[in-house]
Queue: 2 jobs
Job 1
Amino acid sequence: MFEIVVLIVACVIIIQLLVARLFLSGSDHSQYDSPEHLPATAREEPSLEHGQVAKLIGAWKDTGGASGSRPRGRGRLRQVRNRMDQMAENLDFEGKIFPVDVNGVDSEWVIAPGSKPNKRILYVHGGGFVAGSSKSHRPITSELARRLGASVLAINYRLMPENTRKDSIEDCRTAYKWILKNGPDGESPAKVMVMAGDSAGGNLVLSTAAWARDQEIQKADIVIALSPVTDVSWSSPSIKSNRASDIMLGSSLGQIGRIPRSISLWFAWIFNRTTPNNPEVSPLFGRLSGLPPTLIHASSSEMLFDDCKRYVNKANDSGSEAVLGVWPLMIHVWHIFVGSVPEAKEAFDNIEEFVNSHIAD
């Protein structure tokens, strides 16, 4: 009897391993680990201001928040969501922010003095698909509006676990079709169209850009992705190698690198409710030809660095224009601290230069 149980268990394990290898992992993208990309900054060490922010984030993640408590489950999720929204409470912004319903998707317009109504940016926030909002990312959206003279539409796509990954994808597609025909002053066509997002939002932006290409509708003029997730099969080397150096994601996403990949692939399948190699959730696995000019920023010390490098190298190899801006030793999506961290200002200088080199006012 014992031998039969052992045999059954062994068969189940073998089947799980085969399914993970044959159906969940997808093609090998290690050929896109090169070429390397030069840093976009002359800095060799982080600024003192960045060090202070990194220390505060590390302390908050260690203690579970200002109260020192660490709730679990939904309580922890509420705490994270509230904490992210608090990051924008003292925002100094001379423009105006007002809500708008985008065919059922709760959103807001961020308008700086001089923002052009027909020069538009669709912004998709990060937060691991479970947190974040248009409010939490106002430091980024307001800076984009000010720098680029554009009207920024920041959407609140449906979050997990209350909703599915498919819901977030559909909300981004709905918003993209809407913003092509609607501006802050009402219905009018977009003359300049930019898509931007960070982390999970960067994933959704890259996925939406490929979808728009395949739909044969107006493509974005520019795509900007800040530290995006491009591969939810978690196959890139930095997922493990940068676990200790990633202050923001190391304590959460870092757990993926601690378990066998065959098991993490099953978790990814369950979490996304689709195979991890589906290009809708892993843009790296899709066709990357015929895409808009794309700028990606990443820190060389974050876990998603090789995700970004592989995407850029594959896109260029496929005939699309893609540029990777690399900053050493930065926290994940350091751009959100543009009011206090000089490297964030440098990153926005780079974004402004890239956009202006492709779009003439």
Job 2
Amino acid sequence: MREQIITADLHTHLLEKKTKPAKYWEFAQKACLNAIAITEHSEYNPKKAYLDVLAKKPEDLLLIPGMEMSTSHGHIVALGESEEIYDFPELQQKGVKLEKAYKIANENDILLSFAHPWGFDYDSVVYLQGLSQLRHYAIHGNMGAEAYNGMIGELAESLVKSNWVRKPMGFFAYLEKNKLLKTAGISRIMAPLNKKLNKQALDIVQRNLNAMSFGEEAKFITAGSDAHSADRIGCGIIKVKVIAEKIDNRAFLHALRDKSNVLWAGPPAFEIGDGVFAKRKQGVKRMEVLAGLKYAAKKVILRRRPKRIEQKSTKDKV
């Protein structure tokens, strides 16, 4: 049996911004990844994205086939052991009912994880269906939750310029030692920021904190960059301990389902001691911050939820 710590980015895109596969792998290697999941949006032909990057894949890296589904419960990252994940056209239907996708996934050993559960109003489970539905599937069901999304996480950090993600400790140890992240205490960390940040910026920081905190409750977690351009690959990672005779996609996804194997989930980090991690510096350009804020502002334009659901979502928010 072999034991290996796999550093992975489990949420990346290729076709939307016409990224070249060679560039994709160049930055995956720069980020020191052992594994990467190609999770193109279902409307952008995820199988083509997978085959394009597969053709240029370095021999020593794992490529996990996947997609970012658009469901009744928002965006969901689907990960499979092989390209057979693309044999189910229902998973690529826009607005597919989660109950249907959930059944297909369970019958075919496909891993499902809520992408950016507190992301944006129009594509994230908490705002579309409420916190109770997130808990139903990600605590009591057979789904996971994306505890760290690089797009939202880096945007939040760039707005705050604080040390809250730079603590040199593991993900769960960080949550355990920093009681301010608990539901009852989040307001205490937010209060001092009111003088520095506008309402929209505070909202983005809060969304990031909520997802990290929910990672303690979720059955299992994922993390990824949500990179739409090659240079952002690796800005969100997960480190997983894998013990198997052969370290392949199957072994990695099996280990990922057991949260005790997760050593780190968050921004890029390196180990400085036994189970202790320090964050790598990775600057965010001003234009990227502005683009992120513009993306976040889409919630005002694209929100089209029935009043009943909106009231439920507000009630369920942490």
